[in-house]
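SEQUENCE-TO-STRUCTURE ENTRY
===========================
What this section holds: a protein sequence and its matching fold, both as plain text.
Tokens: labelled as protein backbone structure tokens, with as many entries as the chain has residues.
Question of interest: how does this chain fold, as expressed in backbone structure tokens?
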Amino acid sequence: MVDEDPNWRVWMVAAQAGDARAYAALLGAALPWLRRRARSRWPYSNAADIEDMVQETLLALHQNRHLYDPTRPLAPFLFGILKLRGADVRRRRQRHAGHETAIEDVPVTFSGLITNETQESDSDRAVMLAAIAELSERDRMVLELLKVRQLSLREAATQTGMSIVALKVATFRAMQRLKAVMKGSHPDAN
């Protein structure tokens, strides 16, 4: 571990004594070193895994900084943590990889999954249209403007002459009546 900055030990001792600036300086200097070490130790790992290894190493350093012996170099201490945390990250990835499917691997269409989607949507549409026909003219108009044509409340208010608040209330009530008609019960219309 020849590439250790001589200030690392000084900063770590100060950090153990509670010096936040020294600790920040140590982390800033050690971060690129840890990334290089992780990339060289696990060259086939992706960038996200490398970053997870480094972040977990920094977290473990923070939790265990009291264990550092100031008479010894810091780089081997950091590298030891990196090896353990890196192995943990790789083990976790391997464990989860068997249960995951990458999105890129799933075909956009699959002929084995052809359904009667159009037939079902046609019958659903017929039921919906029949239910809407049973509503009052005002309910049909509100649903047509806001739900079918998808106008904004302001646009629909301009066309109907209703206030936005009245339009919201009318829409809510029309939806309630539509749900009731589709379930087979007929609420009293307003």
